[in-house]
Structures are given as C-alpha cells and as structure tokens.
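Hi support team,

I submitted a single chain yesterday and got back a structure, but I'm not sure I'm reading the token output correctly. Could someone confirm the output below corresponds to the sequence I sent? I've pasted both exactly as they appear in my results page.

Thanks,
R.
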Amino acid sequence: MKLLYYQENNFGDRLNPWLWEKLLPGVIDDDETTAFVGIGTLINDKLPRKTKKALLRVIFSTGVGYGQGMPQLDDSYKIYCLRGPLSAQALNVSAKLAVTDGAVLIRKLFNYHSQKVYKFSYMPHYELAGIGWSLVCERLGFGYIDPRWSIEKVLLSISQTEVLFAEAMHGAIIADALRVPWVPIITNPTILQFKWQDWCQSIGVEYKPSYIKRLHHPRQKRDILYPVRLARDWARQQESKSQLLHIAQTIQPTLSSDITIENLTQEMYERLQEFKQDFEAGLFL
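Hi R., thanks for writing in. Yes, this is the structure output for that exact sequence:
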C-alpha cells in the first residue's frame, strides 16, 4: 500500500510518513496497486492521475481543495474519514465521514505536557519561512518555529509555547491537539482559506484570521547596494514586528474545547482501527 502525500519539505506534509509508520506498522510499502491518501489537501481532479496504478484508494482524514474540480468517486475509493464537513459536502458524501484532520492522532503519540519557554511563537507557511521572520521573533522575544525543521523539533517547539501564531495550518492543527491556543495568520493571499474553514468547522470553532504584510527576507549578497538593502530590510522587519506585537496585544487566541478534541481523537482512532481490521481481513489484497 503506497502512501500518497505532497513531497515537500513542509511539516504538515512530512507528518505523513512519520505518523503513519508509527500508527500503521507494516502497512505502508511501495505497492502502488493500493493508495493510502492521508494528511493533506489531496482530494481534487488530480488525484486519479497521481494514483493511476491504484486499483483501490484509501481516503483517511484527507481534505478537498486545489485543482480544478473533484474526482469521480467510484468503487475504487474507500473513504474512512475526511478532514471536515466542507470536504464531505464538496464530494456529496455522508456528513458522518467528516471527522477532522488526521494529525489529531498526534495525541496518541506525543507527550504534550512540556514546560513553556515562550509566551508567543510564530510558525510561517513553509514557502515564506526564513531568516527575516527569525529575526523579527528574536527581537520580540517570541519563539520562531520553522516548518522545515524536523518533525520532533517542531512538535517540541509548539508544545513549549503558550500561544502559537500560525500561517502554517498544520501548526495550528497540532497546537490545538496539544492544547496550545492559536491565532491563524495570513501574509499571502494565495493561502487556501477553504481548507482552514473545513478544519475549523470540524473542531467547532470560527476561522478568524489576522492579516499582516508579507515579509521579504534579506539578501545576503554584499555589494555596493548592501547598505541600502540593509536599511530596507530593517524597516520591513520593524513593520512585521509591530504587526505581530499588535496581534499579541489585541487578538483573542482560539482553542477547541477539551471534550471536543478528545471525542474527535477517539473517533479518529476508531476509524483507524476499522481500517486496520479491513487490512488484516485482506480487503486490500
């Protein structure tokens, strides 16, 4: 059974092999005749082409989004659960299939009762992460969490903060699972709000993002224009610093209720056991 996920150096995508190898030992291999479609916004018209060798496609906690439309569901699709109600509506399937994002199962694997190190931390989108945000956070006394770091380092860093500012959606998902209040951030209009709304509805909270300007990272090249760029970059970072500080001072962070996240974790775990029973019964041979 081949695991399908976006092959990017991004925390949310790299959670897939890390998480499923621990929860489903001996299940994932290189057999492309069955596809396991897990964490990510993977359900769209491109999915059949990405799994063209698959006779069966297991959908487990996946979200709808991107692409130009929906795949034509047929007998090759076995849906155990989806990221949220908007995904179920888009696919025109039972609302009972809408649980939440599979990353909630981190609660079964990670001890999240860590000593707090930072009052606030910021985790940008992986495409926008870099030295600029690291410098801004350092000057504010905030933690900086890079989604390109190792899974273990990101998990520990999130658990050590009191409030997470997150443009990276799986930063917020993990924060909520680890009982860390979070604030969604948008610095780039290309952020897909549908997937955030889908997940937020699954955990019973309202999606209320805070908007700040995109921060362009400093160039390291030293030439005749270096002093000019240095002054420009300092001004940009000061502006980002002011915007983050304003959010910290004025925005109430979000957190789902303890009972909601525990119920969703248990429901997701039960769906996982259902899949494991089907696998052991030879359903995917």
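A quick pointer for reading it: Residues 2-107+262-280 form one domain. Let us know if anything else looks off.

Best,
Support desk
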